[in-house]
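Summary of Year 1 activities. Much of the first year was spent building the evaluation harness for sequence design. The harness presents a backbone, in tokenized form, and records the residue chosen at every position. We chose the following record to illustrate the format because it has been used consistently in internal testing since the harness was completed.
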């Protein structure tokens, strides 16, 4: 039994310690050195080349190195084995930190103060309380959950939007496309951690952004996208920033990654760009998660968080 690690942009140095932990427990192969493909029972993967998984005759499961599995499900030849989504607490907490940081930056009008600082302007701006600001979460899964806990405790006025109705949240939850307009019209800061699926591709477009709340306590609505770049239409975001439909944005993911140097998003004074690391998959945390999941599967159990191929996430 061997574990294949198939990770695009493989970084030997970053993985050195984690590899030692893995090697102590299981024979390893690191793509592109497959050795005897029939020996490989599990694959730990991030953006593997299409066809690679299909070339492993005894593959029992694929473990995604990310919570998102769009990179695996896009492979038309992916064998019909379980796909395990990375769902370690380490990842959840990293995403919590990113979302809370960015909600707070927009609450405290960081883009406006940064502009004033560039001009050496000493002026207080109207400053709402957290409880006066309506934060709407598109996607109420594992990646949203840590930030939701903190923002609820801080008194923000939260709401959520998901695919299916939810009754376990201490705030209103809207479900499905039919309830999207009602969710948007009570949202000042939109936080997106949706997965990329055929249903969600391009959802963060001008039509949606025009549906956000008007007349809220901030100078205008704000978008925070930490889901996937394929969710957003960047030309629409730029147009909405230009005409006031949006006041500011925090974008961690992009239509094309790395974000091309020519993108106007880089230099926009009210856009905060980060390089798809809202929640970094730490090699050590990933290695421990993979070993736990393999133990569960070898004992005949069901792994932590299985992707549903029909749903696409
Ligand atoms: P989950 O599966 O736990 O949650 C996904 C949420 O999205 C659920 O609430 C789900 O609804 C909702 N959803 C899915 N499809 C739709 C739809 N068509 N309409 C409305 N709601 C929908 O996933 P995670 O929270 O673990 O991860 C979410 C995504 O975050 C990943 O797929 C990945 O793309 C991204 N991510 C980004 C990272 C980064 O560093 N930028 C790091 C980690 C993840 P329901 O509750 O009804 O199922
Ligand atoms: C993920 C990611 O899906 O890092 O976990 O984007």
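For this record, the design step produced the sequence shown next.
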């Amino acid at each position: 039994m061997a574990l294949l690690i198939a990770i695009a942009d493989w970084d030997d140095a970053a993985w050195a310690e984690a590899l030692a932990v893995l090697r102590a427990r299981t024979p390893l192969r690191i793509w592109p050195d497959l050795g005897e493909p029939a020996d490989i029972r599990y694959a730990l993967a991030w953006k593997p080349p299409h066809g690679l998984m299909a070339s492993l005759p005894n593959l029992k499961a694929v473990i995604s190195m990310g919570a998102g599995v769009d990179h695996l499900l896009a492979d038309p030849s992916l064998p019909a084995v379980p796909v395990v989504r990375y769902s370690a607490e380490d990842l959840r907490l990293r995403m919590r930190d990113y979302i809370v940081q960015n909600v707070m930056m927009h609450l405290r009008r960081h883009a406006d103060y940064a502009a004033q600082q560039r001009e050496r302007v000493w002026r207080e701006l109207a400053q709402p309380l957290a409880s006066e600001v309506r934060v709407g979460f598109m996607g109420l899964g594992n990646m949203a959950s840590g930030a939701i806990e903190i923002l609820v405790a801080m008194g923000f006025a939260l709401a959520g939007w998901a695919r299916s109705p939810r009754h376990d949240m201490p705030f209103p939850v809207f479900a499905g496309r039919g309830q999207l307009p009602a969710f948007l019209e009570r949202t000042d800061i939109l936080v997106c951690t949706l997965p990329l699926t055929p249903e969600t591709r391009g959802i963060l477009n001008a039509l949606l952004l025009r549906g956000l709340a008007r007349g809220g306590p901030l100078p205008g609505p704000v978008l925070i996208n930490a889901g996937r770049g394929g969710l957003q239409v960047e030309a629409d975001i730029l147009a909405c920033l230009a005409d006031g439909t949006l006041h500011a944005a925090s974008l961690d993911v992009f239509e094309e990654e790395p974000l091309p140097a020519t993108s106007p998003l880089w230099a926009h004074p009210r856009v905060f760009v980060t390089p798809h690391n809202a929640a970094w998959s730490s090699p050590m945390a990933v290695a421990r998660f993979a070993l736990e999941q393999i133990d569960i599967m070898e004992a005949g159990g069901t792994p932590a968080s299985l992707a549903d191929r029909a749903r696409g996430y």
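Residues 89-107 form the longest helix (19 residues). Quantitative recovery figures across the full test set are reported in Table 2.
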